[in-house]
Amino acid sequence: MEQVTLGVIGAGRIAHVMCDAYAELPQAKLLAVTDVNRAAADTVKSKYGMEKVYATYEELLADDAIHAVVICTPTPTHAAITIKAAEAGKHIFCQKPMALTLEDCDAMVAAVKNAGVVLQIGFMLRFTPPFGEAKKWLDEGEIGDVVGITSSLFGWVPSADWFYDPKIGGGVLIDSLSHTFDLFRWYNGDFATVYASGGAFVLDGAKRYGTADNVMAHFRFRNGTMGNLYGSWTSGYGDLTVQVYGTNGTISIDLMEKQGGSFYIRNRRNESSRPQGWSNMGILWKYGYQGEARHFINTLLGKAKPMPTGEEGREAIRALLLASKSMRTGKIMKL
Ligand SMILES: NC(=O)c1ccc[n+]([C@@H]2O[C@H](COP(=O)([O-])OP(=O)(O)OC[C@H]3O[C@@H](n4cnc5c(N)ncnc54)[C@H](O)[C@@H]3O)[C@@H](O)[C@H]2O)c1
Predict the structure, then answer these.
(1) Ligand 1 atom with minimal separation from the 12 CA
(2) Cβ neighbours for 18, distance < 8 A, ≥ 6 positions apart
(3) DSSP label at 99?
(4) Sign (positive/negative) of CA torsion 320, 325, 331, 334?
(5) Structural domains for the chain
(6) At what angle do helices 102-115 and 78-87 cross, to 10 degrees?
(7) Which region, left, alpha or beta, applies to residue 256 given φ > 0 means left and ψ of -120 to 50 means alpha?
(8) CA dist 289 to 166, 214, 218, 224, 237, Å?
(9) How many Å lie between the centroid of ligand 1 and the Cα of residue 332?
């Protein structure tokens, strides 16, 4: 196979980002799209010069010309679509979070294994240059043994109501912090304990559904490293910081531009405008999504190994579900 033919399932916000990324790759061809909202699918078809629109994902999966699918639908649909795609012999790029239950994650992993197809989960931080570089440094012992890791993630206010719903999106913890949980595990190995607290401090959607729009979590890893993170949908405007402290030095990644010496105020008068003083480097958009798309295509062409796998996506969900339980019970959870 010299070119991978793709079908896109779900044509909402992230589908445009993923299509931008795949459209840049000569070894990928965006062939078909489907969405329960026909207008959304038609928009993606014409924007990316695709040949076909299907009314359902089952019809798309029956197209023999499609080698792989890019799943961009709301989280609870990921399991059923992945399982059917695997049964149809398609390779799968699935957006994060992988699913909302461990049972769904396990069924996805089993289906992919039975079918012998590739499943890559959309953790694009791993493919965003500073984070991949940091992983190499950590593995090579550049900063000695890791003592602690900390991160702040500044998400945007969700684009749709379902992100707040615990049965569909799971709030900022499950939806957005899945990225940081995966990154922390990638750097430090398995979690041993997690304690999380959070709440619906600002957003009406979070208050209505009783999910969190701001979360803090504290970890201990199996290797003894300490970790903590903050994640918010309301106190910033995109991007994140990560610091790793070792016995021999520190790695510091800050994707906010001009942060040093700057003074940032978020005023909530105009929700859709960039807050005064906030500016990020756009590096995730420029490199992260394209990096993960390139990796998926290279894996299918036999030039790379699958990463992040379904098993890794599942481990992030396992820790996130325990963090969610910790938030509800106030207890430290053991993994
Ligand atoms: N990696 C990232 O940074 C990132 C960013 C945003 C969203 N996401 C993830 O991507 C997924 C989608 O998020 P989004 O922001 O694009 O949501 P969205 O609501 O903008 O789009 C989802 C689309 O899926 C369609 N859809 C729903 N059920 C369907 C089905 N059964 N078959 C076909 N289409 C269906 C909807 O009509 C909608 O157009 C979520 O899991 C989300 O967590 C990841």
Answers:
(1) 21
(2) 8, 70, 72, 93, 95, 122, 289, 293
(3) -
(4) negative
(5) 4-124+290-307 (3.40.50.720), 126-281+315-334 (3.30.360.10)
(6) 10
(7) beta
(8) 26, 25, 28, 32, 18
(9) 32
b/e sequence 138-168, b meaning 16+ C-beta within 10 Å: beeeebeebebbbbbbbbebbeeebbbbeeb
Mean of pLDDT values over 67-72: 98
Q: Do residues 139 and 146 touch, judged by C-beta distance below 8 A? A: no
Q: Which residues line ligand 1 (CB under 6 A)?
A: 9-15, 34-37, 40, 57, 72-75, 77, 95-96, 122, 124, 159-160, 175
Atom number in ligand 1 closest to CA 175: 43
SS3 (DSSP) at 29 = strand
In the prediction, which pLDDT does 312 show? 98
What is the best residue among 22, 73, 124 to mutate for testing ligand 1's pocket, by most ligand atoms within 8 Å of CB? 73
Are residues 188 and 146 in contact, defined by beta-carbon separation less than 8 angstroms? yes
The pick from 8, 9, 14 for probing ligand 1's pocket by mutation, whose C-beta has the most ligand atoms within 8 angstroms, reads 14
- How far is ligand 1, taken at its centre, from the CA of residue 333, in Å? 30
pTM of the complete model beyond 0.90: yes
Please tell me the distance between residue 71's alpha carbon and the centre of ligand 1 in angstroms: 8
Residue 40 alpha carbon to ligand 1 centre in Å = 11
Exposed/middle/buried for residue 59 (C-beta within 10 Å: 0-12, 13-18, 19+): middle
- Contact (CB, 8 A) for 219 and 228: yes
Closest Cα to atom 40 of ligand 1: 74
Handedness of CA 63, 64, 70, 73 (dihedral sign): positive
Q: How far is the CA of 214 from the centre of ligand 1 (A)?
A: 22
Q: Tens digit of pLDDT for each residue in 298-325?
A: 999 999 999 999 999 999 999 999 999 9
Q: For residue 266, is pLDDT > 60?
A: no
Q: What confidence score (pLDDT) does residue 264 get?
A: 59
